[in-house]
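ok new one. same drill as before - structure tokens go in, u give me an amino acid for every spot. 143 of them this time. try not to just spam alanines like last time pls lmao
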């Protein structure tokens, strides 16, 4: 598919909408994780500017020292899973699959060295898991 603004081949419009939604819900949750870290940081060890400068994967330690200490591993584990899934999306390349453009990543040699296709189902699963994380963060925040 082509658009007026580029001559490059693009995935179908619905796929691109899901891709944009996936990135937006993750970005929202990333900021919400930071908000919750700061709200539960009793020792004032962290500040918003430093946390916002961190890559998402580097929020593991602040998460462990704040939210995880108060409610256990579930929020941190889900966030880490989403970081991994998001990284697949961000570090992907475009392929033709069943006659349409989609994104894919290469699996590591030890995992078979094949292409991992980022399907609409993958994007929908990612969005649903972000919804679950958002719900858990709202519960943790308490209002």
């Amino acid at each position: 598919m082509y658009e007026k603004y580029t001559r490059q081949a693009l995935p179908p419009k619905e796929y691109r909408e899901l891709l944009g939604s996936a990135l937006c819900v993750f970005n929202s949750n990333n900021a919400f994780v930071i908000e919750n870290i700061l709200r539960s940081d009793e020792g004032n060890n962290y500040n918003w500017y430093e946390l916002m400068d961190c890559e998402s994967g580097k929020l593991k330690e602040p998460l462990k020292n704040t939210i995880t200490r108060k409610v256990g591993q579930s929020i941190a584990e889900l966030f880490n899973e989403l970081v991994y899934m998001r990284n697949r999306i961000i570090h992907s390349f475009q392929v033709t699959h069943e006659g349409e453009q989609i994104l894919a990543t290469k699996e590591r040699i030890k995992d078979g060295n094949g292409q991992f296709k980022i399907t609409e189902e993958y994007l929908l699963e990612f969005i649903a898991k972000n919804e679950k994380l958002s719900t858990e963060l709202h519960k943790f925040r308490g209002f």
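Residues 48 and 60 are 15 Å apart (CA to CA). and btw Strands lie at 93-97, 100-106, 115-118.
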